[in-house]
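Page 37, continued from 36.
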């Protein structure tokens, strides 16, 4: 049966003793959190209905804890305090997606520990810290915001998904081409964050340089003034079956790996080691608040 809450929101209910009822009664905590979300959403100018029923185009039914609508935008907020598998999270999220509804989840610490899941753009999951009653609203853990402020910020577009670029550093030494005599930058290593790889032996030179070529590419190396990398299977000074080496950015002549190793062994001062950074993709994403 349809009811109206003290907030003026419509929601659906039935008699607890109805034989058709398969749902467990909601806890006081669950009802309280829904009320906080509904009030904050309505205060932000959205039409709000709790316990809103809907279905996918193929008839798969769902009921949203808090359903918000404004013009063409449809958002469902789910409060999940009891344990639920990540498979079930994904299934229910996909059900909303098929229905043209965006959905966000607010979970308890117990659920968070059980799924060990980091939030993503496709499955926004936000941790609620254990509520002590010391504030008017529970705290959203990742932001340290009260839940009502978080909802208003989310619906106002102040919280959005941002992706961190994956940055690789290519290390090189200042050198001179044996053929044309012009100054060159000889690559010899690469690293991401604290992870760092540099050439150690003549065969290893080929392996490390091939990794740089695969990660960055010759066009990007050349744009930073660093020697390109190519395969020279019969070039004297490279180890058999390890053909990759740098080639002069000016005249295109290969630079033997055995000589690169000799020059690296003579390096003692760290200020002679240089590097350039390259964006090679994206890594971790996160939800971020922007004023």
């Amino acid at each position: 049966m349809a009811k109206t809450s003290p907030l003026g929101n419509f929601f659906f209910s039935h008699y607890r003793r109805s034989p058709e009822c398969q749902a467990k009664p909601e806890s006081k905590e669950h009802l309280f959190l829904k009320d906080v979300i509904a009030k904050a959403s309505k205060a932000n100018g959205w039409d709000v209905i709790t316990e809103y029923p809907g279905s996918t185009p193929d008839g798969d039914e769902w009921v949203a804890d808090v359903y918000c609508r404004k013009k063409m935008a449809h958002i469902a907020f789910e409060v999940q305090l009891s344990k639920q598998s990540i498979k079930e999270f994904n299934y229910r999220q996909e059900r909303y997606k098929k229905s043209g509804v965006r959905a966000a989840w607010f979970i308890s610490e117990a659920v968070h520990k059980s799924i060990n899941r980091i939030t993503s753009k496709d499955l926004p999951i936000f941790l609620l810290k254990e509520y002590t009653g010391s504030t008017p609203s529970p705290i959203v853990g990742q932001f340290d915001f009260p839940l009502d402020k978080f909802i208003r910020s989310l619906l106002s577009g102040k919280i959005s998904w941002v992706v961190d670029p994956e940055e690789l550093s290519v290390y090189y030494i200042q050198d001179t081409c044996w053929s044309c005599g012009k100054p060159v930058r000889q690559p010899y290593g690469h690293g991401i964050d604290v992870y760092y790889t540099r050439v150690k032996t003549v065969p290893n030179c080929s392996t490390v340089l091939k990794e740089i070529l695969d990660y960055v590419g010759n066009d990007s190396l050349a744009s930073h003034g660093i020697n390109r990398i190519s395969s020279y299977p019969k070039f004297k000074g490279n180890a058999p079956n390890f053909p990759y080496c740098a080639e002069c950015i000016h005249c295109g002549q290969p630079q033997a790996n055995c000589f690169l190793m000799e020059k690296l062994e003579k390096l003692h001062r760290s200020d002679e080691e240089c590097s350039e950074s390259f964006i090679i993709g994206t890594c971790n994403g996160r939800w971020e608040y922007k004023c």
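Confidence is low (pLDDT under 50) at residues 1-22. Flag for discussion at group meeting. The longest strand covers residues 159-176.
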